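Section 3.1: Structural characterization of target chains.
Under the original work plan, the team committed to producing a structural model for every single-chain target entering the pipeline before any wet-lab resources were allocated. The record below documents one such target. The sequence was received from the expression subgroup and is listed exactly as submitted; it comprises 185 residues.
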Amino acid sequence: MKKVSVILADGFEEVEALTVVDLLRRATIYVDTVSITEEYTVHGSHGINVQTEDLFEEVNFVESDMIVLPGGMPGTTHLDEHAGVRRVVKDFFEEGKKIGAICAAPTILSNLGILKGKRATCYPAMEKEIQGAALTGASVTVDGNIITSRGVGTAIDFALKLIEVLSGKEKAEEIAESIVYEKKK
């Protein structure tokens, strides 16, 4: 079974994180929610508190096939400032393992130099923070092992693309149909 670690910091964007958790679990992908704080409860940017399964220090990320970084502020800033998160993201990139980042979170990848020469997308107001990438403006962009997305309004597209990358197009279509998702034309 595929395993995904969704890394949460205080101030994360709830819709972006929980849509990924929900849809991947519907696709029978094991999802571990991980707090970078010293508490299992992480506080979303809109006052929704989420109970995680693990603290960052408890996780052996070698066991994960993908990490996902939700956006939101100041959640993205907290993720970017966390030395362990930065190390894990760099390790995943160097090992060719999959990294998903949505909204403001692609700036973390940019700050690590990971997006240089890559195609990517992010929250429009954050585009100026992305260095060296070709910004597509698409709802979701995949370039090699990097999957990026724009924000809350693209969270379902993002989650379905993560499912497709991990479990195939047929599984992603099955989940889309099961939630009565109708992609905009």
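The first strand starts at residue 3 and ends at 8.
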